[in-house]
Amino acid sequence: MSSSSSSFASSPIQSNMALFHPFFSHSTSLHLHQTPKQSQPLKLLLSLSSPTHLRPFIPSRKISLSSIKCGAVADTKPPPLPLDGDQAPAAEEDHKVMVGPTSEAERRGERVVADYDWTEEWYPLYLTQDIPDDAPLGLTVFDRQLVLYRDGNGELQCYQDRCPHRLAKLSEGQLIDGRLECLYHGWQFEGQGKCVKIPQLPADAKIPKSACVKTYEVKDSQGVVWVWMSHKTPPNPAKIPWFENFARPGFQDTSTTHELPYDHSILLENLMDPAHVPISHDRTDWSAKREDAQPLFFEVTERTDRGFAGWWGKTTDPSGKSFLRLEAPCSLQNNREIVDDKTGEKHYFSGLFLCRPTGQGKSMLIVRFGGTKRSPIAKLFPKWYFHQNAGKVFEQDMGFLSSQNEILMKEKVPTKELYLNLKSSDTWVAEYRKWMDKVGHGMPYHFGHSTISLPKEPAVVEHAPAGLVAGVSASLPAKGGIGSMHAPNLANRYFRHVVHCKICRDVVKAFQAWQRALTAVAVAFAALAILVSGRQWKAILLVSAAISSAGVYACSYAVALNTTNFIRTHRRL
């Protein structure tokens, strides 16, 4: 495919908006190197499939489905094909388009089980840039509640989110001289969870040694804070994911955080599903169009105990394929390497999704899109504009995914009993659920392709999420500080994203301040226009009042963009 530097420059919008829909970025004027031999970065990307490159792998073991006894894990066999009359040809036709068994073990009815423990993994907690310096941050991994904060030395500390005194949430507390104080009775903690102050303790008494909090190891890597969840196994730094493209010179990314009201497995399914983009996100940006919905091709190049990887793309444009990788516990990346044929310059683009389970029916996602080349037009837009657009994307899918979550919990059967996975659209979804079959026994709960393990503990519903009270007493906490204008609901964009994003919090506060100031100015100009007698001055003051009123509207609109949910208006061709 031929290309030119001018054509490359003419499509910067499409290249940049691939940040929010990397699955369907346009590349008609670009040449994609398809073989690892031709492209060293792609060779490196494929080399990530090597177990020794990332971390040591524990070999899987094959066991018969009939011999599995794993507590709450349930296994079901696929229903037999109908063989009577005209149904047999129809069943054969179905199997031509449906995803079927992908391994000999699956064809023989065997299940491959990997040695897996969900606690012996690093989970993405937060973007480093968004961690507040003046307040603690309440977070969860599955059902474990954590509190993260910066101490007086700027070091990150992570504890179990409960005071050993009477179990109050430490994330509702505050920071005093670099120490984390529980706001219930004023106990203070520092360093490795040691209690250093109890106001009610007699002056001649020592603080009990048992007055300490459980700690968790955290590491800052490539702009993300990761937490190791195991207290039995020492932290393994080699397991912290490393994303090659994000370390390249000149690489720039747009990163956002979103809290979402559905299970992390459903979220990952959605993120690895390119087929839904042109339909669900039609015209959300400049790249998604429902007319582009079409069959896709998928090529799985590796399956391991820690995930899978492979190529995918449009059947109408095989040269424009992308490389997708799922890596345990819940990291997903979609990469492309593009070369300008005229200049020979290579450009690298990545869509990175770092998912964290936050409880039953809840998840948090760190989204990072970027590349070594950015559109000049995109530079004209502020970062908050792309943040609100990302929020719109998640809101467009929210109704589908929340209902999907409810049905899975209600039906209590594996996904193969419910899904109709097409080879031309749902290959990654089937691969993911089959990988869950291998490792789900080592998770608190899971929904696999052939197995399920239901939650053993009831879901926790927080009527007063950590930080809402602290938001009033602490100084500008990460959870907000704007007041009570927005309800604490994960269906609300403000609490899904803005409270977790320093950029958007500051933008909302700034626009609100300008709105109040311009309102006062508009009122003042209008009042003066009434009082003055000169027609020229009256006209000038009225025009000034009108301009100020327009500024009030613009500020109000900007606040609404950042805090108001997208409402779908159906578009018919």
UniProtKB/TrEMBL annotation:
GO MF annotation, one: chlorophyllide a oxygenase activity
Record Pfam families: PaO, Rieske
Domain (Rieske) ranges: 122-227
UniProt key word Magnesium: no
Keywords for this protein: 2Fe-2S, Chloroplast, Iron, Iron-sulfur, Membrane, Metal-binding, Plastid, Transit peptide, Transmembrane, Transmembrane helix
Transmembrane segments: 513-532, 539-560
Subcellular location: Plastid, Chloroplast
Main location: plastid
Cellular component terms (Gene Ontology): chloroplast
One GO term (biological process): protein targeting to chloroplast
Listed PANTHER family: IRON-SULFUR DOMAIN CONTAINING PROTEIN (PTHR21266), PROTEIN TIC 55, CHLOROPLASTIC (PTHR21266:SF29)
Protein name: Rieske domain-containing protein
